[in-house]
Structure formats: structure tokens, C-alpha cells
Amino acid sequence: MTRKERLFAAFRRQPVDRVPFATYNLHPFSQAHRQDPSYAGLLELVWERAGMLCKTELAPLRAPDAPDLADRLEIRSEGSGGGRRTVSILHTPAGDLRAVTEQPPGQPSMVTEHFLKTDADIRTYMSLPFAPVPFAPEPAARLDRDLAGRGVAYVGYGDPLYAAASLFDFADFAVRCVTDPRPVIRLIDFHFERLQVTLQNMLEACRGRDFLFYTAGPELCTPPMLPPALFARLVTPYQRRLIRMIHDAGLLASIHCHGRVRDILPEVIAMEADVLEPLEPPPQGDMALPELLQRVGGRLCLLGYIQDQEFHGAPPGTMRRRVEEIARQVERGVPFVMAPTCTPFAHPASESFRRNYTEWVEAAVEVFGGS
Questions:
Q1: Where are the domains of the chain?
Q2: What is the pLDDT of residue 69?
Q3: CA-CA distances (angstroms) from residue 197 to 34, 67, 108, 120, 187?
């Protein structure tokens, strides 16, 4: 089996010749890593020896004169004392909405005012018109070709809860969901209608291909942010229908969800997802791998369980022990893919990161079998 074939067999819960493993968005076609010399040795290593899960996208084919949300945005930016303040005005048919981003000197930017603050703002936002667009399979198709059977093109699609939550201060959004979710649900329904059309257009562009689709939005509705009962109400029914569309197109769907998954695991199974990732081990997660495997019972593929933070500071030998622990817990044929829990974001990569990542890949090849 090629690495891609082995990964897809695990995703489909079919037999594999050995336990698959894959990097998480670390591959030679990643601009951020390819342009950073500190990653050169790792990119060569993973190309030769590891499977690769590679996030990518499709190309929207918007006509030059077609309306776009960006056309309704007015951006005003000003500097002050070395910092920067950006005011975004969204012009809608029912009035203007405003958001503010502040970036203090030498610090990351933060949104200090969000577009939606009141029920009236929700109604204003929902006056926005919608112009669906078709898609082309590039750049996902190009990446799939370039990987040459070594990895999987991982295509993102929208989540209506995430689309709604991103317009609010999250604390305000969470309080609204708990106290009176009806206006939020109307906004989620508004996004869901549009996301269905967008996803259908994406799937039309992908017919006959074997990309893996994923969405990250559901993780906003997990403990401790929101109670599990709201996941069942605000995520599951929408994702079940979106995932059915993906399956009807002959493709597979993955749910990206950091942190605690114990209480929402039955919902992920109920929405008929194919893959759940990145499976953070305790203490970031709340389930050990043997219990995860037992609770899932082969009903979806589990991907992850190599905590990214350990690459940065763990002493030598740690990553080999992690691989050996997983090898003792996972039988061949169980739908599981060992992978890190995160895209590597440190630039440049530290010496300890490079050492530990190399140790992990080499231990995986030795323990589970050649690439």
C-alpha cells in the first residue's frame, strides 16, 4: 500500500497492512515551512518516510462583476504610538456594522469590538445578500498530484456555528447560547442555508477525487466553553446533513476538535463522521487512547494522540516511548492514525523540536514498519 492508500483505508475503516502515521500539515509544499531553512531537514525526512495530512483549499470561481462580502467592507487603519488600530465597517442593506482590531506595539492583534453585539445587529447582518459561486479543484488537486501517493489533501468546509460565533465576542456568544439561544439559532440557520449551497458547489468540483473534507467549527461548542447538550442542538443536526452531502458525493468527512471530547463523542458518532482528530491526550484532552478506542468501537477513525507541545521541550527518548505506548494499545486493523495534534507554528524550528520530531518519525517507521 502507498502511504495515501494506507491512510484512506484507515479513514474508511478498512484493513491496513500496518498502523498508519502521518505528519499534521508539515510537508514540502507548505509555504511557511518550505521557506524556513530550519525545517529543511524535517521536510526531507517526512517526504521520504512519513504519511502527510496536508491542509489545502479549492479555488472559488467568482465572476469579476459578481458581488462579494469583501466589497461591502470598508477598512480604516491608523497607527498610534507604534501600535495600530483598524476599524472595519460592514455595509449591509439594513445598515452598518462595526468591528475594531487593536495591535499594541510588539504584541499580537486582538479584536476589541465585534460586528454583532445586540439582537438588532443579528437582524442587520442577516440582511446581507448571497451570491453562490462555483469552485475549481485547484490548488487541492495540484497538491494531491505533487504528493504522489505520500499523503492526503485535506480540504476545509464551513460550519454554521463557527460562522455565527466568529461575529461575536465569544463570552457574549456563550452567554447567549445558554440563556436564550433563539436569536443565535436563527443566525446559525441563516449560515447553514448558505453553507449547504457552498458545500454542494465544492463537492461538484471534487467529483472523482479522493480528498478528505474537514471542519473545525464544532470544537467551539465543547466543554468547558459550552455544555454538551448545546453541541447536540447547535452542531449535530447541521453537521449530520453536511456530512451526508459529503458522503453522497463519494467523499469522506473529518471533525477537527481539540481538547475534551468525552461528552461530545456520541454526537460525533451520531453525525456519521469518518474521522475525529487531533485526539489530544490528557491533560489537554480528557480521554486516554484505550478508552477512546473502546468507546468508538470502530465506528470512526481516530487520528492524532501525539501531543505537539512535547516536540518542543521533551527530553530525548520521550517520543520513542510515546510511539511504543501507542503500539501496545492499538491493534493492526483498528481504525487509527498516529499523528501530531497541531501544525508546527514555531519559526525558526528549535533544535529540540527538530530532534524530537525526527525521533518520532524514525521510531514510527521502526515500530510500525517501513514507509
A1: 3-64+131-368, 69-115
A2: 78
A3: 35, 16, 35, 26, 16
CA distance linking residue 125 with residue 165, whole number of Å? 13
Q: Cell 462583476 appears where?
A: 65
Contacts (Cβ under 8 Å, ≥6 apart) of 158? 191, 195, 198, 199, 215, 217
Of 257, 225, 253, which is closest to residue 239 (Cα–Cα)?
253
CB 357 within 8 A of CB 311: yes
Query: Model's pTM, two decimal places?
Result: 0.94
Neighbours of 63 (CB within 10 A): 9
> Which residues of the chain carry a pLDDT beneath 70?
63-67, 80-81, 370-371
CATH, domain 3-64+131-368, list 3.20.20.120, 3.30.300.180, 3.40.50.2000, 3.20.20.210: 3.20.20.210
Cα separation, 54 vs 51, whole angstroms: 10
Q: DSSP secondary-structure letter at 116? A: -
pLDDT the model gives residue 333: 81
